[in-house]
Amino acid sequence: MRVFLDISTPLTAAGVVAEGLAQHLHKNRLQEYAQRSGVGLPVYHSFNEGFAHAPRFKATARVGRVTYTSRLTFPHRKEAEQNVARVQSH
């Protein structure tokens, strides 16, 4: 599911919700891809590259024999995992 927003019109609450959901579907899509391909479920590892008081997370996802790594750092582990799943799909 892709959600496109027209910036010339005001955002509705439904548009905000749809955009938020689209940002959180990358892990689901990666899992579905892995299951269809028969390579097993993705395995995620997150690591902090920041400080304890200001964490910056990166993540890796191993799918079959291939490992993908997020390019950016994020303040939350879940964001890093979503990003690495998105990296795999592009």
UniProtKB/TrEMBL annotation:
<keyword id="KW-0677">Repeat</keyword>
<dbReference type="InterPro" id="IPR014720">
    <property type="entry name" value="dsRBD_dom"/>
</dbReference>
<feature type="domain" description="DRBM">
    <location>
        <begin position="25"/>
        <end position="90"/>
    </location>
</feature>
<keyword id="KW-0694">RNA-binding</keyword>
<dbReference type="GO" id="GO:0003723">
    <property type="term" value="F:RNA binding"/>
</dbReference>
<protein>
    <recommendedName>
        <fullName>DRBM domain-containing protein</fullName>
    </recommendedName>
</protein>
<dbReference type="Pfam" id="PF00035">
    <property type="entry name" value="dsrm"/>
</dbReference>
